[in-house]
Specification:
Blueprint lengths: L2 E3 L6 E3 L1 E4 L18 H13 L4 E3 L8 H13 L7 E6 L14 H15 L4 E6 L8 H14 L2 E7 L3 H14 L4 E7 L11 H8 L2 E5 L22 H4 L7 H18 L3 H10 L4 E6 L4 H8 L8 H10 L8 H7 L17
Parallel strand pairs: 3-4, 3-10, 4-5, 5-6, 6-7, 7-8, 8-9, 9-10
Antiparallel strand pairs: 1-2
Length: 351
C-alpha cells in the first residue's frame, strides 16, 4: 500500500480507502448498492487492513446508520486499535422526519455527530465531512459548528463533499478570515468516464493544497468489466438497476473499448486499469473502493500495484477527454503566446 497526507496536514492515509456504503441492513434505497451484513463486513474490513488500508469511509445516511454501526462493530470484532485507523463519516442528509433532522445547521450537526460517535463506538471522528450543499444555513454557521467540534476533540479534521468550486473557495476564505478550522478535503465523483471535476474543482484543490477523495471511481460499476457497448445492462449488476452516477454513455463505451486491450496486456480486469488511471493523477489523495464480495475487493486492492506506461495513460487521457467548454477554451487561446509570439487564431481561420 502507498500513503499520502490528508490535505495540508501531517496525517497519512492509504491511497485506497474502504468505502462502506455497501454495509447495509437491506432497507431503503441503499439496498440497491449492497446488502453486506456484519459477518461479511468483518471479512472485508480484515482484508483491507491486511492489505495496508488504514482509511475507512462511511456516512450517517447510509442505510439510516446501519453502515456506521456495522463498521464500528467490525473494528471491535476484529480487535483493531482505534489509533490504527483513520475514520471518516459525513453529515447533512435526512436522518428523521423532524424539520431539523437534515442539513448543515449548528443544530443538526451537533445532534448528528453524537449519533455517529455512538454508532461507530468511538470518542472521535478523524474526518467529518459536510455531505451536500445546504442552501438555507449560512456558511459561517456551519463552519463555526465544525470548528467547535474540532476544539472539543470530537472531530480532528473537516472536509466537504459534492460542493461547487466557488462554494469551496468561499468557505476557505471565511475560515481564514475568521480563524476557523478549514476544509482539508473534498470527496467528489471522479472517474475516467466522468472527468468534469478537472474543469474547476481539480485546479482549486491543487492551488489550496486540499486532498481529493474519489467516490464511485468505477462510475457505479460501469467500468467494472461487465458493461460494454454490446452488453449495456448485464444481469445482476448494481448499475443495471440503479443508473447512477450520471455518465455520458457514448464516451464511456469509447473508454471501455480502450480499457479492455490495456487490461489484457496487464493480465487484469478493466476495473483495475480504471483505478490505476485515477491513482496516477497527482490531485488524487485516496480512492474509495467499495465491495459486496471479497473477490471484488481483492481485485480493486490489486490496482495499487498496476503501473501504466506513458503511452497507456496518453491513450486513456485521449479517449476520455472532456469536450471544450468556456472559459477553458478561451483561456487556452489567449494564453498561447504568453511565453513567445504565436498566431493565436491560426486554428480558427481558413486562410
Amino acid at each position: 500500500m502507498k500513503y499520502k497526507t490528508l490535505g495540508n496536514t501531517g496525517l497519512l492515509v492509504s491511497q485506497l480507502c474502504l468505502g462502506t456504503m455497501t454495509f447495509s441492513d437491506g432497507t431503503g434505497v441503499y439496498k440497491h448498492i449492497g446488502n453486506v451484513g456484519q459477518e461479511d463486513a468483518d471479512t472485508l474490513v480484515k482484508a483491507s487492513i491486511d492489505a495496508g488500508i488504514n482509511f475507512f469511509d462511511t456516512a450517517d445516511v447510509y442505510s439510516a446508520g446501519a453502515s456506521e454501526r456495522t463498521l464500528g462493530q467490525s473494528f471491535k470484532n476484529l480487535g483493531i486499535a482505534r489509533s490504527d485507523v483513520v475514520l471518516s463519516t459525513k453529515v447533512y442528509s435526512r436522518m428523521g422526519q423532524g424539520r431539523n433532522d437534515v442539513g448543515a445547521s449548528r443544530g443538526h450537526i451537533m445532534d448528528a455527530v453524537e449519533g455517529s460517535l455512538k454508532r461507530l463506538q468511538t470518542d472521535h471522528i478523524d474526518l467529518y465531512q459536510i455531505h451536500a450543499t445546504d442552501a438555507v444555513t449560512p456558511m459561517e454557521e456551519t463552519l463555526r459548528a465544525l470548528d467547535d467540534l474540532v476544539h472539543q476533540g470530537k472531530v480532528r479534521y473537516i472536509g466537504v463533499s459534492n460542493w461547487q468550486a466557488w462554494r469551496i473557495a468561499t468557505a476557505l476564505g471565511l475560515s481564514s478570515r475568521l480563524n476557523l478550522a478549514r476544509f482539508q478535503t473534498v470527496q467528489a465523483y471522479y472517474s475516467i468516464a466522468g472527468r468534469d471535476l478537472e474543469r474547476e474543482i481539480g485546479p482549486l484543490l491543487q492551488a489550496e493544497k486540499m486532498g481529493l477523495l474519489v467516490w464511485s471511481p468505477l462510475a457505479g460499476g460501469l467500468l467494472s468489466g461487465k458493461f460494454s457497448r454490446e452488453n449495456q445492462s448485464p444481469e445482476g449488476s448494481r448499475r443495471s438497476g440503479f443508473d447512477f452516477p450520471v455518465v455520458d454513455k457514448e464516451r464511456a463505451w469509447n473508454v471501455i473499448d480502450v480499457l479492455r486491450p490495456i487490461a489484457e496486456a496487464h493480465g487484469c480486469t478493466p476495473a483495475r486499469i480504471a483505478l490505476a488511471w485515477l491513482l496516477s493523477k497527482p490531485v488524487v489523495t485516496s480512492v474509495l473502493v467499495g465491495a459486496k464480495r471479497l473477490d471484488q475487493l481483492e481485485d480493486n486492492l490489486a490496482a495499487i500495484d498496476v503501473t501504466l506506461s506513458e503511452d497507456e495513460i496518453r491513450q486513456l487521457d485521449a479517449v476520455s477527454e472532456l469536450p471544450p467548454e468556456y472559459p477553458g477554451w478561451m483561456l487556452e487561446t489567449q494564453g498561447a503566446d504568453r511565453l513567445g509570439p504565436v498566431d493565436l487564431w491560426q486554428s480558427r481561420t481558413t486562410s
